[in-house]
Specification:
Layout: E1 2-9, H1 16-24, E2 33-37, E3 42-45, E4 57-63, E5 74-76, E6 79-87, H2 94-102, H3 106-116, E7 119-127, E8 130-135, E9 144-147, E10 151-155, H4 158-162, E11 169-170, E12 175-179, E13 184-188, H5 202-219, E14 222-226, H6 231-242, E15 246-254, H7 259-270, E16 273-279, H8 281-286, H9 288-295, H10 300-318, E17 323-325, H11 330-334, H12 338-345, H13 351-359, H14 361-374, E18 379-381, H15 387-394, H16 412-420, H17 425-428, H18 435-438, H19 441-451, H20 456-465
Helix pairs in contact: 5-6, 5-15, 5-16, 9-10, 10-14
Length: about 475
């Protein structure tokens, strides 16, 4: 995992200083190595201070993990490639598997990577004098693009583009972007489709979750789980443990939160090592700038949600892991929000709302969480976003996801599955509580804003603009 930069000078001038600047600001965390490539050469170095490569089209990477070998970018034939993420349909190292896809015909290979391969990833390639880049069609890993009068660039976060005076735009899932000295072209290669609702059973759901989780397990045999003790993190932990992943669970939040003991009880039932990482209101205030720098926007809700991910990722790194699992994505797939139930009980059909929320989760949720964890040198893995599970779950009828009464439990089929797996009823039926509330972060942020005589939105806006 790591960061990608690619840049092209419209007038044929050397672009190396631009690439180095983008790599310098990618994140404040350590790197295993950096790489710079032209279409025909590659250079790996320890710091992004100098490259001997001079070219109007260059690519760069900040490589986070020593274990990701060989270091990127990779050069083959007439092109170079950088791949950041995970391919779930191959036992090869991810970057080599992606490179093999491009070997014979890089342009066709790039399209087939998106249309045929299963995973969560962003990639870029230099082919002759152009930049090609793209994302899988679920979109958990971000990529941004933009241009000014002299350059066209792509990068893994917004700050990499802003550092070279380019306003960032978000590349959408399933898209390929082609940058040349003349223009920018975007092509939609694959799009999430809304399936026809089909009645299913918890047994079939169990089979699919076992298989899709197994594909993650094959690539990541040891990791932590960001663990709340709710149904999503319980099932994530259950299936990863079932598939042989060596797991440790991490709960993070402010001191004296009752949810800590709820999570402890669930961890004890699962029989997995459990770590509690508590913080104070002073800690919340101290890292507010860091949180906003990671999520790259002043949204107060996203800010509150990012804190537990930041703390859990930092604890994961302290424990010696490089990957962390989360149950993120289950609420949109299985009807976890009250607004879905309200529409259902009023006679409406919230299926379209669920589909739109899943399709837009890349921008509303995934990019925030992925960037927050990457800035702590941790790869975030989201089993509920496995493409096959997403496609299957979107086809489950709304009546199997939502109850017919207000006091019934949402995500009905997930809770039925948990009980089928002999998870205690009080754990399976525990109501959802959003991370920013269960961790105590939202209350702390509100107090900090009040102390500064601001609303929370005014506070996050001020920090973002500083």
């Amino acid at each position: 995992m790591g960061y990608i930069a690619a840049a092209l000078d419209k007038h044929g001038e050397d672009i190396s200083e631009t690439i180095l600047q983008m790599l310098k600001v990618a994140s404040t965390g350590p790197a295993a190595s950096y790489g710079v490539a032209s279409p025909n050469n590659v250079e790996i170095m320890k710091t992004p201070d100098f490259t001997s490569l001079e070219n109007p089209v260059l690519m760069g990477t900040k490589n986070l993990f020593e274990a990701d070998y060989p270091p990127e970018p990779l050069q083959q034939g007439n092109h170079s490639i950088a791949f950041k993420g995970i391919l779930l349909d191959s036992n090869e190292p991810d970057s080599l598997s992606a490179a093999n896809q491009l070997l014979q015909d890089p342009v066709k290979g790039i399209e087939s990577l998106i249309s045929e391969r299963c995973g969560a990833y962003a990639f870029a390639a230099l082919v002759d004098d152009c930049i090609l880049a793209g994302l899988d069609y679920i979109g958990t890993v971000p990529l941004y693009y933009g241009e000014n009068e002299t350059i066209r660039v792509i990068g893994s976060n917004r700050k990499m583009l802003l550092a070279v005076d380019v306003e960032p735009n978000t590349l959408k899932p399933g898209q390929i972007i082609k940058l040349t000295d003349k223009k920018t072209r975007i092509k939609q290669v694959k799009t999430l489709k809304k399936p026809t609702p089909t009645e299913t059973t918890v047994e079939i759901l169990h089979q699919i979750m076992t298989k899709t989780s197994g594909e993650y397990a094959a690539k990541t045999p040891e990791a932590t789980v960001a663990f709340s003790g709710g149904i999503d993190s319980i099932l994530t932990s259950y299936y990863m443990n079932l598939n042989g992943v060596r797991l440790e669970l991490v709960w993070t939040g402010l001191e004296d939160q009752p949810e800590q003991y709820i999570a402890q009880e669930a961890a004890d039932y699962l029989g997995l090592n459990f770590h509690v990482d508590t913080h104070t209101m002073e800690d919340v205030e101290e890292i507010l700038d860091t949180i906003i720098d990671s999520i790259e926007e002043p949204d107060p809700v996203k800010t509150g949600i990012a804190y537990p991910f930041h703390w859990a990722a930092k604890k994961t790194r302290e424990l010696g892991y490089t990957s962390m699992y989360s149950g993120n994505g289950a609420d949109e797939l299985f009807g976890g929000y009250m607004r879905y139930l309200e529409k259902h009980l009023s006679g409406g059909d919230p299926s379209e709302d669920l589909f739109k929320d899943v399709a837009n989760s890349y921008e509303n949720n995934f990019h925030r969480d992925t960037k927050t964890c990457m800035d702590q040198n941790i790869m975030l893995l989201l089993p509920f976003t496995h493409p096959r599970l997403v496609e299957f779950a979107l086809g489950i009828p709304i009546t199997q996801k939502l109850p017919d009464t207000r006091d019934g439990s949402r995500k009905k089929i997930l809770r039925e599955l948990a009980k089928k797996l002999d998870i205690p009823e009080k754990m399976a039926d525990r109501p959802k509580k959003a991370a920013q509330y269960s961790s105590g972060v939202n209350k702390a942020l509100s107090k900090i804003a009040k102390k500064n005589k601001m609303s929370l939105r005014e506070l996050t806006n001020k920090k973002y603009c500083e």
